[in-house]
Specification:
Blueprint: E1 8-12, H1 17-27, E2 31-36, H2 59-62, E3 68-72, H3 78-90, E4 95-98, H4 105-108, H5 112-118, E5 123-128, H6 140-147, H7 167-190, E6 194-199, H8 200-205, H9 209-218, E7 235-239, E8 244-248, H10 252-259, H11 275-280, H12 282-293, H13 298-307, E9 312-314, H14 318-323, H15 325-328, E10 332-335, E11 342-345, H16 353-357, H17 372-379, H18 384-392
Parallel strand pairs: 1-2, 1-4, 2-3, 4-5, 5-6
Antiparallel strand pairs: 7-8, 8-9, 10-11
Helix pairs in contact: 1-7
Length: about 400
């Protein structure tokens, strides 16, 4: 059953964090309309290669905007705000979302009180770097740095490192997704809308479960550990004859099974029987394991460890990940009927009924203002001459 197919999302969005959220909502089957300024638009449209040879359709933008429609609207103009009111009413918008700075809410006519007066049960989401009281601009690396995520990433004696993916952006999107689902449940049961203010800093810092408690409650230093783990051993990356593998011995039972293998029997020592002993001598332990692993192929080690139930994985490159049968079967597709380009998109967190109904396919990421005529003329009832006048005045 497609629970969300009749729901509409209107999103004044740009960059990554909010577009990724609305991308997830599109995967549920919601009708997502992304709104952009008619001159500036979403800067991410200009990032990456211009594979299609079209303005504002670069490759970076294509990754998380499939399944949406796109309109342009200048909310700095009074007539633009009047059109916004019609969009909210006629589209019967369920969710309005923005990642504008808070100081722009009232100025642009997108504040919760204004939109609630138009549609009382609307669910309003404002995604900001540091909360609705702060107007500081926020970008992914800044949030990683301020939240402590960067201090936890990298080698112990090296510089702090940025994460391999934008976790502050995407993690905030996932948290916002959960809050929206709670707001929808609240509306279903009470008929009331909601205002949601999500701070990306708070979202990012919420991942620091162990570091927070150990630091604040026990005055224990927690910082970068590279590929090792502060509390478990052996847990690390090891070079093999054919590449790299990562092993994670999470308890003493797994360790006993490992040293029960002929290849590792020399490490079956009393001082290593407990995790505490292995942690105390982790440097020598990992060096010993490194010598053993270097004489083995990754494939043989994976087979060997799988037989005894010990977690191990090849360190896959992205092309290898995409060929993993558990991932490959879930990859999404999106075809541009204008150019013939077919995109392969990341697998969703979980397959939704909507994606099953579309054979894992989403509509192609919308071009800049692509759906202006459809929404303004066909849905809101403006004449094409009105659109021409709006364009001349810089409203759309």
């Amino acid at each position: 059953m497609e629970l969300f197919k009749d729901m509409t999302v209107l999103s004044l969005e740009q960059a990554t964090t909010l577009p990724y959220l609305t991308y997830l909502l599109a995967q549920d089957g919601m009708s997502v309309v992304r709104m952009e300024h008619p001159i500036y638009g979403d800067p991410n449209r200009m990032i990456g290669d211009n594979y299609l040879k079209e303005e504002r359709m670069n490759t970076y933008y294509l990754c998380i905007n499939a399944g949406k429609k796109a309109i342009t609207l200048n909310l700095g103009e009074e007539s633009g705000q009047e059109i916004l009111g019609k969009l909210i009413t006629i589209l019967q918008v369920d969710i309005f979302a923005t990642n504008q700075l808070p100081r722009n809410y009232v100025k642009l006519g997108i504040d919760y009180d204004k939109l609630k007066s138009i549609k009382p049960d609307i669910i309003w989401l404002g995604m900001t770097g540091f909360g609705p009281e702060v107007n500081e601009a926020a970008y992914e690396p800044v949030l990683e740095a301020r939240s402590g995520l960067m201090d936890l990433t990298g080698e112990p004696d090296g510089d702090p490192q940025s994460l391999g993916i934008p976790l502050a952006d995407m993690g905030s999107s996932v948290h916002a997704y959960g809050l929206i689902m709670k707001a929808l449940l609240k509306r279903e049961r009470t008929g009331e809308g909601s205002r949601i203010d999500l701070s990306m800093l708070e979202s990012s810092a919420s991942w620091l479960t162990v570091p927070t408690t150990l630091t604040a409650s026990f005055n224990q230093a927690v910082t970068r550990t590279g590929n090792t783990h502060q509390f478990f051993a052996p847990v690390s990356v090891f070079k093999t004859k054919t590449g790299y593998v990562y092993i994670a011995v999470g308890n003493d039972r797994q360790w006993k099974a490992m040293v029960g293998l002929p290849l590792f029997q020399a490490l079956d020592k009393p001082e290593y029987e407990k995790n505490e002993g292995r942690i105390k001598d982790v440097e020598n332990l990992n060096q010993s394991l490194g010598r053993i692993f270097s004489d083995m192929t990754s494939e043989d080690l994976i087979t060997m460890f799988n037989q005894i139930g010990l977690p191990i994985s090849n360190i896959n490159s992205i092309p290898q990940v995409l060929e993993d049968p558990l991932i490959k079967r879930r990859l999404l597709k999106s075809k541009d009927h204008r150019s013939g380009l077919e995109l392969t998109l990341a697998a969703p967190p979980c397959t939704t009924p909507f994606l099953q109904s579309t054979d894992q396919t989403l509509s192609f990421p919308p071009r800049f203002g692509e759906h202006n005529k459809e929404i303004y003329c066909d849905v809101l009832g403006y004449a094409e001459s009105d659109l021409t006048a709006f364009k001349e005045k810089g409203v759309i």
